[in-house]
Amino acid sequence: MKNIVGIGLLILMLVSTWHFLLNGVDGGLIFYSSLILTIFLVIIGFNIFLENRDPIQTITWLVIFCAFPFIGFIFYFLFGRNFRKDRIFRKKYFLDKQTFVKINGEAGYNERIKEMGEHPQQLITLANRLGNSPVSFTTETRVLRNGEETFSNIIEELKKARHHIHLEYYIVRDDRIGGLLKDILIQKVKEGVKVRFLYDAVGSWKLARSYIDELKNAGAEMVAFGPLHLPLLNNKFNFRNHRKIIVIDGSVGFIGGLNIGDEYLGQDQKFGSWRDTHLIIKGEAVRTLQLIFLQDWYYSTNNSFLSDEYLMPGMPNHHGYGGVQLIGGGPDSEWTIIKSIFFKMITSAEKSVWIASPYFVPDDNILQALKVAALSGLDVRLLVPKNPDKRIVFHASRTYFPELLASGVRIFQYNEGFMHSKIIIVDDQMASIGTTNIDMRSFHLNFEVNAFLYRTESAQQLVNDYMEDIKVSKEVEIDEFSKRNFGLKLLESTCRLLSPLL
């Protein structure tokens, strides 16, 4: 039953085409097409029921199938197929886990972890158990708060590369900044540097073939993650690689919210200024980022490079920077890793929880945790964009505002362009920065990566940057928000209906 949607769509198209060629458009064509569609919707509905999904998600799908059969069928094909993702990625999960444990070893509880205190220690332990990644106290990090700062640092470090450059991105554009990075990579290949570039096949579907060919012809390896051969029958279509990773010589790394494209430099006419957050990492923790890339590369190419030249580069240790832990999560994981850590961060907070997310469609667990934290008297804040780039998600997110505001959560809408940062800050001391949004797709369907910071200078910088962002944002007042016109409320409620599927 695993390819029932693609097979159903294929049969529907073949039967409809065959009947049309023989008889043209008549009542028989409509009858047979409707009959086949109904049969497959019944099978799909029964399959969803047996998957034991969240009850709200199951009911949502059944309502859509009844109200909009054909649209629901297509929508399910694009966004809803589950196909027991644990079976699809089981091999990858166990290989990744074995490799992380072998390379990193058991983290243990050394004196530095104990010195962090009970709250950080619990988070470190949870993250290590779920993500198989130890915390590093010899890693330097620095926050990069916009595209100009991020890409200038990336370019500077790329030019220093001597052995290898590894890149992994969801979106790659063939525009000015994309072309500049391509030229640098080609030059580094000529200097003898090994370049490996992993890009998501769906996120980068607009990427020109000439861009890929130029890099390949120069000697770089460029590979698509999750290529869509026969997409109608591809049961991995819905699971995408949303990670943004650069590793240079195994000692310098970058992660965060910025893809490769001019819009991330604020050069998109629609949004203008683009507010985002990235992180540069130097030292021991880069090895974990390297492992995440190498395992994704192995999954995509079946080529392994788990050798000392990539994992033991003799990097200098940096001291006095607090704890840094790199965690990768995705549909290959036994647990919803990053969501579980987010949940623990919120529920264990003692003073404050500050969140920035461009796409806010929480599940019941995260939503309840935020409301309970606010009702307990904590300073809970949510920073979101004022203007949308994905309208369904934008309108769906606003339906959560009334209950959050009623519980005491303060919500701010960022006014200066588009806000794309993905940040959680707890008690001014612990923070998460990376690629994960507060939405269903990031929690359950996408491959993501986040850095968790414990009492580092970068965590304090995120606090300062968050306060600056609040100054150029407008706080949502519950009385004013409740005065939205009926048409807008109806649109938002309709989008909310789809929120379990987003």
Summarize the structure.
With 502 residues, the chain is of the alpha/beta class. The chain is built from 21 helices and 16 strands. The protein has helices spanning 4-23, 27-50, 55-67, 69-80, 85-88, 90-104, 111-115, 118-131, 147-160, 176-190, 209-218, 286-301, 308-311, 337-347, 364-375, 391-398, 401-407, 440-444, 457-471, 478-481, 486-497; strands at 139-146, 164-169, 194-200, 221-225, 245-248, 252-256, 274-283, 323-329, 352-356, 379-385, 410-414, 418-419, 423-426, 430-434, 448-454, 473-475.
Notes on the structure:
The protein is of the alpha/beta class and 502 residues long. The protein has 21 helices and 16 strands. The strands form two sheets. Strands 1, 2, 3, 4, 5, 6, 7 and 12 form an eight-stranded mixed sheet that branches. Strands 8-15-14-13-9-10-11-16 form an eight-stranded mixed sheet, with helices on both faces. Helix 11 (209-218) links the parallel strand 3 (194-200) and strand 4. The longest helix has 24 residues, at 27-50. The chain is globular. The model is unreliable at 17-26 and 105-109 (pLDDT under 50).
List the helices and strands and how they pair.
Layout: H1 4-23, H2 27-50, H3 55-67, H4 69-80, H5 85-88, H6 90-104, H7 111-115, H8 118-131, E1 139-146, H9 147-160, E2 164-169, H10 176-190, E3 194-200, H11 209-218, E4 221-225, E5 245-248, E6 252-256, E7 274-283, H12 286-301, H13 308-311, E8 323-329, H14 337-347, E9 352-356, H15 364-375, E10 379-385, H16 391-398, H17 401-407, E11 410-414, E12 418-419, E13 423-426, E14 430-434, H18 440-444, E15 448-454, H19 457-471, E16 473-475, H20 478-481, H21 486-497
Parallel strand pairs: 2-3, 3-4, 7-12, 9-10, 10-11
Antiparallel strand pairs: 1-7, 2-5, 5-6, 6-7, 8-15, 9-13, 11-16, 13-14, 14-15
Helix pairs in contact: 1-2, 2-3, 3-4, 6-12, 8-14, 9-10, 10-11, 14-15, 16-21
